[in-house]
Here is the input.
Amino acid sequence: MRVRFSHCDPAGIVYFPRWFDLMNGVVEDWFGEALGLDYRGFHQDRGIGLGYAHAEADFVSPGFWGDHLDAFVRIARIGGASLALGLAAFRVEEPVFAARLVIVTTSLAARGAIPLPDDLRAAAERYRDAQPHPPGTGDLP
Here is the structure.
């Protein structure tokens, strides 16, 4: 992930709420690149929301304008209507943040939780079973 001017405060440091926008970008990319699923298609074509029921983060080191960070996603739990994810970002080998996100699948029409779609569950299980563990990420949230 690349830290841009728009993510920063006047001092050139990532403004903490912008981290959550960056994290969502990581999740969107992860859907397509790692799971082979169209994140946008869930919302626009299938009427399935992928909202967050829980989000928390530990900011270990500040992010700066111009940083190029490596972000990693780990599946912590696959539930009936949710995915619990651990995200971590590193500047080279220096940890920058560790986050825990819980995505809940919802019907956009009924405005309520629905079971994980079969294709999402299957892709998540495949990913979980073959999860990459880059050096230094063994303790991802």
